[in-house]
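This week, look over our next protein:
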Amino acid sequence: MSENLEVLDGLLRSAGYRVKAAKNGAAALRLASDRDAPSLVLLDVMMPGMDGYTVLERLQKDPATSGIPVIFVTALTEAGDEEAGLAMGAVDYISKPIKPAVLLARVRTHLQAKLARDLMRDQNAWLEAEVSRRMEENEQIQAVSIRALANLAETRDHETGRHIRRTQAYVRVLAEALAGDPRFAPVLTPAWIDLLTRSAPLHDIGKVGIPDHILQKRGKLDADEWAVMKTHAEMGARAIEFAERDEAQPAAFLALARDIAHWHHEHWDGSGYPDGLAGEAIPLAARLMTVADVFDAMMSRRVYKSPFPADEVRTYIVERRGSHFDPDVVDVFIERYPDFIDIARRHADPT
């Protein structure tokens, strides 16, 4: 061990520091990359085999050691030496001959600074994790609340929560497939699709306002009863709109939920209800929901009908491409039809 290294080692140990000493750059890099990494590196510029600048460069390139502060300790006195070291990322520069009080003061200062940075980093990491946890918790509460409200409407119609899960899955499949079309990609972002999926369960929330003798009728509705039944679209949209008004910053998914509830019974050719909208005047979220809802309604048992065979449901939707349904949505429905069948099987209603 050189005389200078012995002096530094003894000085630091006498001040209560744990010290790892290296006689050359390669050894210094090995010690710095140990599991018990140093909190600070004192580095001489002139060393055998590898100079201090090269060692500093290697330390900074390695993610495991890039955060270790480095103080150059050197006898170099050229005007550019100090600037060069600091420009490369050294935190300080101590000239020989070493003044013990100066060295110890600077070591203490930089160790305290590193400790503060580490504490701040750990605190920020904890805060980020806590924010993420709370956001996830809020999203779970929101999802449970949506499902509870949606189930309230569905159970009055003798449906189950599985209808909600199926239609959510169908809508996501359609939206993700349609997102591959450059015409729709700017709207159908992953975030928008997540909002769409979250809002889908509220499509029939307006059914809570329909009398039981109409909602649960086993036979065909007469003209007056059908007129009442069709009001569920507007009632659902109004309920969601009232919820939006009550909040200073309403949740983004509520706007999509309102569009779906209001217009998922509109037809591409303008023959639907409640407003007779046609073509692209019907919000995209509602056009996606229309296909998902009709597919599930036809595939499911209701008080007034038995389920239709899957192939008949597929044919029904395909034959109404461009009249009842958006042609582009029907095209991706055909493309992803096997996924629809898989979802229907996985979330089938109990017999």
Q: What stands out?
A: Residues 241 and 258 are 7 Å apart (CA to CA).
